[in-house]
């Protein structure tokens, strides 16, 4: 069977970081942040710095160093869902920067982290593991190269929205998924909701970066709608 153009695109890009980047910024509410372990909070702040305040040329090195710290924190907090989530986020982001087949091992470990976090506490960090896992499923190539699966992506992203219906990241990533599916009207609605999301205390840098990404994507989606 000849691969579809979309499948070929997914194979060649491996991960389109972002998540634009943002391969994986996930959300959590102020109440969750207030109870975040200091070691895990340091990883979160390091991720914000690496993704939104580090030059592109230095970002991979910053994330690689952060991934080692995240692994140590996760090892020290083996039964903590938030530590697993943040290790997965860092690994996913590093994969997005590195790209290519070499990134597959990173995203496979990130998937394990998110699945383990869901098993421990599916509502941890406002359902971030669901959103993060869903983002991997639609950005990673499918079989035989990777484990990408659009149906699983939709299911995970919707679970994330069930936990955090008004969150900036839950809506941003769902909007990006719908855009990739060609559902520009649905993407517009999700991205508008992302931009209307409440601010996250302590996440000002991440919020600013994510809003800029959402605004750029919304402009792209509206251009698609206008062109018919």
Based on the structure, what is the oligomeric state of the protein chains? single chain
**Helical content band:** over 70%
Count of individual beta strands: 0
CATH class: Mainly Alpha
Number of helices in the DSSP assignment: 11
CA(first)-CA(last) distance: 31 Å
Order of helices and strands: HHHHHHHHHHH
Radius of gyration, in Å, reads: 16 Å
CATH topology: Serine Threonine Protein Phosphatase 5, Tetratricopeptide repeat
Give the strand content. Answer: under 5%
Low-confidence stretches: 1-32
* Shape, principal axes of CA atoms: globular
SSE class: mainly alpha
| Overall structural domain count | 1
Mean pLDDT, all residues: 87
Second rung of CATH, namely the architecture: Alpha Horseshoe
Specify the biggest β-sheet: none
Key structural traits:
228 residues, mainly alpha, Serine Threonine Protein Phosphatase 5, Tetratricopeptide repeat, 11 helices, 0% strand, globular, disordered N terminus
Short recap of the structure:
By secondary structure, this protein is mainly α. The protein has helices at 5-13, 30-34, 38-52, 56-76, 81-98, 104-120, 128-139, 150-163, 168-181, 184-195, 204-226. It has a single domain, classed as Serine Threonine Protein Phosphatase 5, Tetratricopeptide repeat (Alpha Horseshoe), CATH 1.25.40.
Protein architecture, described:
- There is one protein chain.
- The protein is an all-alpha fold and 228 residues long.
- It has one domain: Serine Threonine Protein Phosphatase 5, Tetratricopeptide repeat.
- Helices cover 70% and strands 0% of the residues.
- The chain is built from eleven helices and no strands.
- It has helices spanning 5-13, 30-34, 38-52, 56-76, 81-98, 104-120, 128-139, 150-163, 168-181, 184-195, 204-226.
- The two termini are 31 Å apart.
């Amino acid at each position: 069977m000849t691969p579809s153009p979309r499948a070929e695109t997914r194979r060649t890009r491996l991960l389109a970081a972002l998540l634009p980047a943002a391969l994986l910024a996930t959300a959590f509410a102020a109440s969750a942040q207030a109870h975040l372990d200091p070691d895990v909070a340091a990883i979160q702040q390091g991720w914000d710095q690496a993704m939104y305040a580090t030059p592109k040329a230095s970002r991979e090195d910053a994330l690689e160093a952060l991934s080692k710290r995240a692994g140590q924190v996760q090892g020290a907090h083996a039964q903590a869902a938030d530590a697993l989530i943040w290790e997965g986020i860092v690994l996913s982001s590093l994969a997005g920067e590195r790209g290519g087949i070499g990134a597959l091992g990173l995203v496979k470990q990130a998937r394990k982290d998110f699945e383990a976090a869901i098993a421990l506490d599916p509502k941890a960090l406002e359902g971030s593991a669901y959103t993060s896992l869903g983002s991997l499923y639609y950005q990673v190539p499918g079989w035989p190269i990777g484990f990408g699966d659009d149906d699983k992506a939709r299911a995970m992203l919707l679970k994330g929205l069930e936990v955090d219906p008004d969150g900036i990241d839950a809506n941003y990533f769902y909007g990006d998924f719908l855009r990739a599916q060609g559902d520009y009207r649905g993407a517009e609605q999700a991205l508008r909701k992302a931009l209307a999301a409440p601010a996250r205390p302590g996440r000002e840098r991440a919020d600013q970066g994510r809003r800029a990404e959402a605004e750029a994507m919304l402009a792209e989606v509206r251009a698609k709608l206008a062109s018919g």
